[in-house]
Amino acid sequence: MNKRFGILKRGLAIMTVFCLLFPATSHAEDSVNPAVQSIMTTTPVEMSAPGGDGAESGDGEPTEIETMEQLPEVNTNENLEQQIIIVYAKSGEDNVKELALTTEEVASGEQLSNRVDLIEVSDKTNVDALMADLAQNPNVLTVDKNDKIQVTSLPNDPYVTNGSAWQFQRIGADQIWNQISNADPVVVAVIDTGLNVNHPDLIGNTVAGYDFVTGKTNVVDLAGHGTAVSGCIAAVTNNGIGTAGISGLANIKIAPYRTGGMYSGDTQLDVAYICAAILSAAERPEVKVINMSFGGYGTFSSLAVAVSEAVSAGKIVVASSGNEGESWNSRVGQYAYPASYDHVISVGATNKDNNRASFSQYNDRVDLVAPGQSVLTTARSGGYEYASGTSFSSPIVAGACAVLMAADASLDAEAVETLLKSTALDLGTTGSDPYYGSGLIQLGLAVAAIHSSDTVGSTYRTHVQNIGWQDWKSDGQSSGTSGQSLRLEGIEIKMNNLGNDLGIEYQTHVQNIGWQGFKRDGQTSGTFGQSLRLEAIQIRLTGAAATSYDVYYRVHSQNYGWLDWAKNGCSSGTQGKSLRLEAIEIRIVPKGAAAPGSTSRPFVS
């Protein structure tokens, strides 16, 4: 044992001396220090080349980002607080190059469109400070933190039904199914959870969109919300199956943009994707309308800028007012966005009885209402379902806008909104109010108004107790007073027919006098200076063109409020009750067009 140990000691000593006398060769040095070899053999070109996946340069310095392809893709379901949306003033393939960002500051990134980038800031970088720095760049329109926004739908009925699509009867859409035939399609961009493009009741009514979740042109809908929204607009009419969209037989197509919805029932949309979708839709000349059935109560500068860009591009932008209208909800009465931005048509929801759906958000930014409680529409499964929420009243209005543009391609966004508001069925308190806006859309009347408003209209004024003659009103506006206990004493009505052989005549029932004889075309009916109240009125059209039009009128009567609409010479008001008229509205519509509202009780005797 000791002998073996002695031999081993002598061997180790010899090896030590050998190493001291003969230094290691260059080959041995290379083997034990590969890092030195790597640096020595790297060319200058390789030293300056961009790295991938957050690579740094060979000397350890962070790499400047010249293209988003250098970075891993952002996971929008994680680390939202570290994600920044960048909206550029100009289009560009690699706008990020001008920002002088480095792989030390940015962990991942994605170019969503040629105007929008999304980056995830590294943990060691101050997000707010970086945003402030980026905002100084002249090519950056705005920077914003990324977030999620909820779609504005409520849970669907748990079964597929084959019930009647009542929503279109309430707005007169069923009367103009086959009246509009436009060669060039009017495209509605639906920014939502995507679309089942193979749904049998939507095939043929879609055009190319984009799936921002997958980064592909082939759009899917895993959540189902986008398919339901799209069906309200463009479900195929007269194909013998399912339901129909508000578009009827007009040539209206859906361009689906998927901005969220990762699984069935997922209600979250990504703000960055939404902004990119809005800007992409705004650049397409065939897109005339943008529907946004979602909303949140935070403010997003990126979303506001994107909407403003779409409005500036001439698009009609429609959004749901929100579902927080219940009295117990902490958000009741608040502004939801994007619906409450300027120049966005904010849409609330009504039920079958033309009452505000209890969930429908209300405020002074609500413009119009449409059916939104238990409306029949297309389901992701390929079948049908009843759905509730302002998510579904919004596309009904968006589809109505598209129908009007299909009927008259010269209309712009302002003209379309004016048509819908001026022909809407006034609900709630008289005039525009926070619950119903200008009222329930009446598509049949709006379409009719396109063809009649330039040639036929009525103007009228009333003589009011203590006030005298009021200014002239026209085409459904209210003349008189309400809630002031002031009587109407006289009225004058005339036609603006611009060449049509169409006149108007009218007679009033006056206190202590009864029915007076008919007056016509601007003459005074009733009295003034005698303190006598008007109690009822009859109005009818005259002339050769009278067979082409109907006149509707309704009065606000003491103790009754607004009575229902009378038509073509029928009595409106009261008789034998000593009750005064306080206000009147008059509308001229093409023969056979839908009534402005209920006609069941225009006169009480």
TrEMBL record:
InterPro entries: ChW, Peptidase_S8/S53_dom, Peptidase_S8/S53_dom_sf, Peptidase_S8_Asp-AS, Peptidase_S8_His-AS, Peptidase_S8_Ser-AS, Peptidase_S8_subtilisin-like, Peptidase_S8_subtilisin-rel. Residues 44-63 are annotated as: Disordered. It comes from the Bacteria. This is S8 family serine peptidase. Residues 1-28 form the signal peptide. Keywords: Hydrolase, Protease, Serine protease, Signal. The active site is at 192 (charge relay system), 225 (charge relay system), 391 (charge relay system). The keyword Kinase does not apply. It comes from Acetobacterium wieringae. Belongs to the peptidase S8 family. Residues 186-439 form the Peptidase S8/S53 domain. SUPFAM superfamilies: Subtilisin-like (SSF52743).
